[in-house]
Amino acid sequence: MAERSWVPDAEESGFGIEHLPYGIIRRLGEPPHLAVRIGDHALVLAPLAEAGLFDSVAENSAPLREALHRSCLNGLLELGPDVWSALRGRLGALLAAGNNELQDTGIADSALVPLGEADELLPIEVGDYVDFYSSLEHASNVGRLVRPEGDPLMPNWRHLPVAYHGRSGTIVVSGTPVRRPLGQSPPVNPDSGPSFGPERRLDFELELGFVTGSGPDAGEPISTAAADRHIFGFCLVNDWSARGIQVWEYQPLGPFLGKSFATSIAPWITPLEALLPFRVPGPEQDPPLEYLRIEEPRALDLELEVALRPGEDAEETVITSVNARRLYWSAAQQLAHATINGATVRAGDLYASGTISGWDPGSQGCLLEASRAGQEPLRLPGGIERAFLEDGDDVTLRGSGAPGDDRPALTLAEVRGRVEPAA
């Protein structure tokens, strides 16, 4: 059973004591505040630190107090897994039913903010952003579209987590409108040149990302066994894609303008510790090289979905339902591969899984797959069809972990974005 909190309705929300995701909020007329989410409230942490409620978390409480006064999570990320775990444990105790420590300080009413009274901001200052290609189903589905007569997977795919470096400067928080990008698209016939204009094949991508703390000194590689000490937490990610631009530019060096215009992430980062009860064995792999082997379950049993509302007054329709446990390459393997060459890891780096898809109809994590590159548009209520996104479309990514004998229900913070016309 879920542990009870004195915060009203916390357990029923999927944001109970066992969850406690971190984010940044801003009330009207105030600077940003670092907070944890409990139910439909945000608990601002700096006043609690000033009241001495976190003095037991670390031998020297000054760095933590300073980190909790910042307007992003990066300072907390730099403090490492021992502080993360101790702070999480302390917060759980302070929020548990029957514990009146926080109320007795007299700051509970001002520190506990209803989410309806605050804006949710980008939670981290993103250093580097890496986007993987870790779903076997997605890679195979796309491969069959672009290489119908050949092997859908490239020869390297089962041997390493394929990825590219994205653009951290265009990562935005959920709710930020996404402007349709301009760019070049492929020639319509061999005798013409490329066209230029608004992207006609705009797409979403359903992904699960993780945020890191500081890496080892001097770019020392991170093993799969040590990955947990560098992964702070997870969040949903929508890596918006301009398919026309992408197909024209991606050879020979990979994605560029087709991926760099917008990436949306959730405002709340779910701590890794909250997801440990949801770990399950992942898909069977071809035996990878030694540095990519894992000795324990690392897949995450999380139900994911994408809802599309084609216009402000239209009905929302769930068009994708899939489970994250299907990912072929785990976060631990992704981080181990990203650092095997000595590449550094910094607090606030974001690594995304790549599109998460399944084999069954309705389990594809992007419209490129779901509509078979526009050949079979999705049929929505009211006779509406979508091959790719149109201006005014609203896309929402959601995720949850179902309760079990040893775990409570957990809800991931959603990611929402509305498509706006090109400039």
How would you describe what is shown here?
By secondary structure, this protein is of the alpha+beta class. The chain has two domains: 10-120, Fumarylacetoacetase, N-terminal domain (SH3 type barrels, Roll), CATH 2.30.30.230; 129-420, Fumarylacetoacetate hydrolase, domain 2. The protein has helices spanning 10-13, 46-50, 62-68, 74-77, 81-95, 101-105, 108-111, 136-146, 243-249, 272-275, 331-339, 367-370; strands spanning 22-27, 33-38, 41-44, 112-114, 118-121, 129-132, 163-165, 171-173, 178-179, 182-185, 195-198, 202-203, 206-212, 231-238, 241-242, 263-265, 268-271, 279-280, 299-300, 303-310, 317-323, 350-352, 378-380, 384-386, 393-401, 410-420. Strands 1, 2, 3, 4, 5, 6, 7, 8, 13, 14, 16, 17 and 22 form a 13-stranded mixed beta sheet that branches. A five-stranded mixed beta sheet has the order 9-26-25-20-21, with no helix packed on it. Strands 10-11 form a two-stranded antiparallel sheet. A hairpin with an 8-residue loop joins strand 25 and strand 26. The longest helix is centred in the N-terminal third of the chain and has 15 residues, at 81-95.
Helix content: 10-25%
Number of strands: 26
Q: So, the CATH homologous superfamily of the largest domain?
A: Fumarylacetoacetase-like, C-terminal domain
Q: What characteristic shape results from the CA principal axes?
A: globular
What's the overall average pLDDT, rounded?
A: 96
Strand-residue proportion: 25-35%
Largest sheet: 13 strands, mixed
Class based on secondary structure composition and strand pairing: alpha+beta
Q: CATH topology of the largest domain, what is it called? A: Fumarylacetoacetate hydrolase, domain 2
Indicate the CATH architecture of the largest domain. Alpha-Beta Complex
| Domains, number | 2
List the total number of helices.
12
| Spatial gap, N to C terminus | 51 Å
Query: What are the low-pLDDT stretches, counting only 5+ consecutive residues below 50?
Result: none
CATH secondary-structure class of the largest domain? Alpha Beta
* Spatial extent as radius of gyration: 22 Å
